[in-house]
Amino acid sequence: MDDTDRNSVAMAKTVRTYMNNSPAKWTAIPAFVAVMGELDTMIEDIDSSVEKQEAPTKGITQDKAAARTALEELILDVGGAVFALANSLQPVNHAMAADVAVNPSALDTMAEQQVNDLAMRIYEHANVNKAVLTSDFDVSATRIAELDAARVTFQGLKSNPRAAISGKAGETATLPEKIREVKSLLRLRLDKMMLKFRTADAVFYAGYRSARVIVDRHGLGGGETPPTP
Fold it and tell me: Is the pTM for the entire model greater than 0.85?
């Protein structure tokens, strides 16, 4: 959200606060109650969108990186044992060896889906050969299960940062329209309804007009004159 939109939202919140500070002036009038309820709902919706738009994705990215590191460690551990087993068989099981072959440098450069697929192949071969891996290679059934669990965890996280960014883009796209709706509500309804106080309660009306000024809180300008009723 840019400064112009932030200033518009700040103005709407100022109007809400001003009106809520003088409930006796308008709460007996159904149309005022209705428009103020709509204004409150709109502001809450905007605040929710801003919170989602500005939520950091760094933590999500760090979680995914940590999950990949844990998975790669298990891939190298269990996969190395499966590869050695394949080459110790008579005859050598070349297909199994090819399925699980990996080295640390290659693993670091693999795409996320390739890492997931490799972990799945290693788990499947390890699970089938669990007994010999446990007895001869010191790879426990627990370690093999950890490999699959780590793969599932990584699979669940690997698209999260991108999804979070897409969500932010969606909120960014809808925010301007939500802010326009708030400004229209004020201009087309509340501003006109407040005219009843122009002479009947000039102080209250003047305070409202002051609240309706959009203050430039970040730029160089002095603000925006409220529209002529």
Answer: no
